[in-house]
Amino acid sequence: MEKMIKLWERYSDVFLSGLVGTLWISAVVLIFGIILGIFVALLRMTKIKPLNIVAEVYVEILRGTPVLLQLYFFWIGLPKIMPFELSDTQCIVVALIVSASAYISEIIRAGINAVDVGQWEAARSIGLSNTHVMTKIILPQAIKNILPALGNEFISTVKGTSLASVFFVGELMTSYKTVQSATFLSLQALTIVGIIYLILNFVLSRLVKLLERRLQVSD
Amino acid sequence: MTNEIIRTEGLTKSFGKLEVLKGISTTIHKGEVVSIIGPSGGGKSTFLRCLNLLEEPTSGKIFFKGQEITSKKIDICEYRRQIGMVFQTFNVFPHMTVLENITLAPILEKKVKKEDAEAEAMALLKRVGLADKASEYPRKLSGGQKQRLSIVRALAMHPEAMLFDEPTSALDPEMVKEVLNVISDLAKSGMTIVCVTHEMGFAREISDRVLFISDGIIKEDASPSEIFTSPRDPATARFLSMVL
After folding, report:
1. Cβ–Cβ of B104/A141 closer than 8 Å?
2. What is the mean pLDDT of chain A?
3. Of B53, B161, B159, which is closest to residue B106 (Cα–Cα)?
4. Inter-axis angle of helices A172-183 and A186-216, to 10 degrees?
5. Does A126 have pLDDT greater than 70?
6. Whether B51 contacts chain A with CB within 8 A
7. Banded pLDDT at A4 (limits 50, 70, 90)
8. Residues A171, A175, A181, A184, CA torsion sign
9. Which residues of chain A does B104 touch, with a Cβ-Cβ cutoff of 8 Å?
10. Is the pLDDT assigned to residue A192 strictly greater than 90?
């Protein structure tokens, strides 16, 4: 315990900059993961068969292979196909976005499918355009089904960023590695990092709960 | 009544191998009130849903004021704006207030000014006795109130015709009347109405014509007094003897 406090005093800036790394990577992955996820969900739901199949294969591959494998794949593969220089961090963030988008697209699809079919029909029957049916009627109702599952996905994403430490990308788990190799105090450093993750995810899950309650006001 | 609104020619609809409609040809004229009766599974609702293309017909044609709407070139959304539909299960939008339910489509699709749309919605709500509920969410409404809301939601688009798909079947008995009254007021005001119903007394009272649909075809097409007092088709007679 004493060693842990000393370790924190001495290396708090390393842990904190790791936390900052985890936070920004998580935020970027979630934002772009959601955008890409919406896009993939739409592809899976269009009436155009080939697009459905492409989206389905995309989701199956990403859900059926380990995230760590995907990170290696992008880390090695992406620089080869891109015409410009890419840092390790950029490759890993792209890989995490792609990986998250597969899960998020499934969450969105399930949430949309759970909206009563009568709502689609009523919206169409009053002559709403397809875009308005989706944006004004279906999505506002689907969001209530989507949010709880998405909250879980947020937490998985935050934890998933720890895999980036394998590639020494600046984030919390990497800061553990840095401190550990400087001090050889593995357990203490791990505990500190673990506590930070715990607090982070606790706050995140509270925020999602709060948002859910807000949305429930209308019904 | 030569002014035709909707005409169907040899309309068929199959779900997989199940042929639900086997060729329906009929014409609905302006201002006409047509009730559709018949046994469950006979194709009444499917026929009605085909009329605003919620079901895509397998074959056959539908004309709206002489224009073929089953053709690929037609903007379906634009067509649907001219045909109102009321569902058995109301399908009001739960995440919007009563007023927003009504003003949504006119504002979005007809570019009506918000104030104008709201003024009209209030007038419509007054007409069906819901003016005091304008700012409530639908969860606070009874079944009958929801159904009246869904009727004025459709009316706000100034449709040329209204389709009713068993509008009172999901209601508690004490609420049936308030909804039927709204529909019959609408009929008296000259609205063109096609109504699938199990309320035989109502069909008899408000209709200009009654279609008896069974086994995917129109078995009988006659005035209410003919169909209810001296049905020509034995299937109609059998059906009526069971429900009356």
Report:
1. no
2. 91
3. B159
4. 170
5. yes
6. no
7. confident
8. negative
9. 126, 128, 136
10. yes
Q: Is the pTM of this model over 0.90?
A: no
Q: Does B139 touch chain A (CB under 8 A)?
A: yes
CB atoms within 10 A of CB A164: 27
Which domains, and CATH codes, for chain A?
2-218 (1.10.3720.10)
Report percent pLDDT > 90 for chain A.
Answer: 70
Assigned token pair, A155 = 């937490």
Mean pLDDT of all residues in B237-241 = 92
Q: How far apart are the first and last CA of chain A?
A: 49
How many residues are given for chain B?
244
CB-CB contact of B128 with B69 (8 Å)? no
The 3 state secondary structure assigned to chain B is: CCCEEEEEEEEEEEECCEEEEEEEEEEEECCCEEEEECCCCCCHHHHHHHHCCCCCCCEEEEEECCEECCCCCCCHHHHHCCEEEECCCCCCCCCCCHHHHHHHHHHHHCCCCHHHHHHHHHHHHHHCCCHHHCCCCHHHCCHHHHHHHHHHHHHCCCCCEEEEECCCCCCCHHHHHHHHHHHHHHHHCCCEEEEECCCHHHHHHHCCEEEEEECCEEEEEECHHHHHHCCCCHHHHHHHHHHC
CA atoms of A144 and A212, how far apart (whole Å):
7
Beta-bridge mates of residue B119 = none
Structure tokens at A125: 């029957």
Which residues in B lie closer than 8 A to residue A128 (C-beta atoms)? 77, 104-105, 108-109
* Residue that the structure tokens 């004229």 belong to: B29
Tokens 């969410």 belong to which residue?
A: B137
Read off the pLDDT band of A218 (50, 70, 90): low
Decide if B105 and A219 are in contact by the 8 Å CB cutoff.
Answer: no
User: By CA distance, what is B137's nearest residue in A?
Assistant: A218
> B84 vs A219: CB contact, 8 Å cut-off?
no
Q: Can you tell me the mean pLDDT for A192-205?
A: 93
B219 Rama class: left (phi>0) / alpha (psi -120 to 50) / beta: alpha
Phi then psi dihedrals of residue B97, to 5 deg: -70, 165
Measured between alpha carbons, how far is A142 from A213 in angstroms, rounded to an integer?
Answer: 15
**Which residue type occupies B73?**
K
